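This part of the workshop introduces the protein records we will be handling. Each record describes a single protein and holds just a pair of labelled lines. Instead of coordinates, the fold is spelled out as a row of discrete tokens. To make this concrete, we reproduce a full record directly below:
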Amino acid sequence: MKIGLIGLDTSHSEIFTRLLNDSSDPHHVAGGTITHAFPVFSEDLPISRDRFLHYKEIVENKYKVKIVENIDLFMKSVDAVLLATVDGRNHLLWLKNIVHYKKPIFIDKPIVMSSDELKTVVELSENFQTPIMSSSSLRYAQSITNKETSDIVSAYIYGPLPQQQAMPGYFWYGIHSLEMIVTLFGTDIVTIKKEKYENYELLYLTFATNRQVIFRGDYDWHNRFGGIIHYKEQIETFKLWQDEQPYYRNLLVEIIAFFNTSKSPVSLDETAQIIKLIEQINSLE
């Protein structure tokens, strides 16, 4: 399977390409190869602009991916698309440019920047019969997928929550921890409380089942996603950075299956609920 990559301005550009294209990598994912890349970055977003040339160099020269700057040629050269620009503000625009080709599309986080935009994504998917998937890699981390969720009573979850003005609040890094929480607890959240401190914030979530989650988000970036889960009769701790399999690999396994079947393991309805949750959290002071 030939896979096209839109966006060369994020570490995912290198990670996805390495895991799919390098068969010698110990975590190689078979079933598809990134063969073409459409070079995209956002001039007004430093995390995009300042990393573009670095990742373009790696993808093009190290992994021999063909750079194509004509979107029609790009789409006709591939079987499926990874829309992986770091800037969530442009995802809907790019989707509008490619959805009519009717090829499976994975949209990296954040899928879009509002519930209204998400409604448009759903409409485009339905109107053009184009399958669309979006998911955080943390949803498929070993420490999450191996958990029995039915007996969970409560949890303390922690992770990085660096801020980006262009993607405020939980749209950038916070969305990953929220997807981890939703995977374990579902989306039936009835109360939300937020407390802000100098270097971090605490989020208190109560679910319709009376289960509770406390999330601590550190404003400084780090890679330590983890938590403590309370069951009725035991307590389990988990640290994603210690998992044997990297969560990006597990996500790519799901993406390749989606590209082959056109059936997303994460519904757009659930994705819409996550976007709505982010909007609710961001509205709190």
Summary: The mean pLDDT is 97. The chain has two domains: 2-134, 138-245. The first strand starts at residue 2 and ends at 6.
